[in-house]
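User: Run a structure prediction on this.
Assistant: Running it now.
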Amino acid sequence: MKKIFILMAMIFQMLCVFCEDDDLSFVKEAVEQYFATLPYGENWTLARSSALRENGKSIDLYERDKAFDNNKDTAWVEGVPGFGRNEYIMTNVLIQDGKFYYDVNYHELKEESGIKVYLSMLNGFCKNQNLYFSNNRVKKARIVFYDTPVSIGQDYTTIRAEPVIVFEKEIELKDVMEEQKFCFNLTTRVDFPFCTAALLMQLTILDVYRGTDYDDTCISEIKVYGEYAE
C-alpha cells in the first residue's frame, strides 16, 4: 500500500475530484452501467471514484464490490495519492419487504410519505487490528442521495429525466471496529408514476483517522436499504 507522504497529501487535498452539483452526468453514467452489469455479474466500477491497485496483486483486490460482499476481511480502498479527500463510493438503494428487495416505485410513493433509508458500515480495514490501525479510517463523510427516473424493458433501460439530489448530509464516524448505523428520511420525486426510481447513495470521504503506516482510506462493509415511510 502507498506510504504516507505528508507534503504530497497536502497538495492533493487541495484538488477536488468531486463533481459539481450542477453536473450530474456521472450519476447517469453510473445508472446506465448498473443496469448493464446486472445480467452479467460484472463489477459496477463507475460507482466509485477510484480503487487501489498494487503491483503483483489482483486488479480487483480493493475494488468497490469488496465493500458489499458481506466479508469484513475485504475492503474497498481508494486509489489516489493522499488520504482520498473527495473520493467516493456509491450504491443503489432497494426497498426491503421481508426477505425481498425491489426497486423504488414512484406509483407506490404517491401513497406514502417518503422513504426511510438505513445505512450500516464497518469503517476501516477490519480484517485484523494491525490492518485497521495501519490504514486510514473515515472520520467525516458526505452522504448524498440521487433520484433518477428510469424505464426498464426486457432489453433496455432508458433514463427519463435528469438526476436530482434529494438528500444531503455530513456524518461523523467513530474510530471503532464495530458496525455503525445511520438513518435518513428522504422525499423523492413522484411525478413519474410509470417509472422506476434509480435511487443512488454516494458516500464521499471528507476527513480520516490517520493510519500509522499507510495513507490508504478503507471501508470494509456498507449495507443500505430503504423502507416506505408510514
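Residues 25-37 form the longest helix (13 residues).
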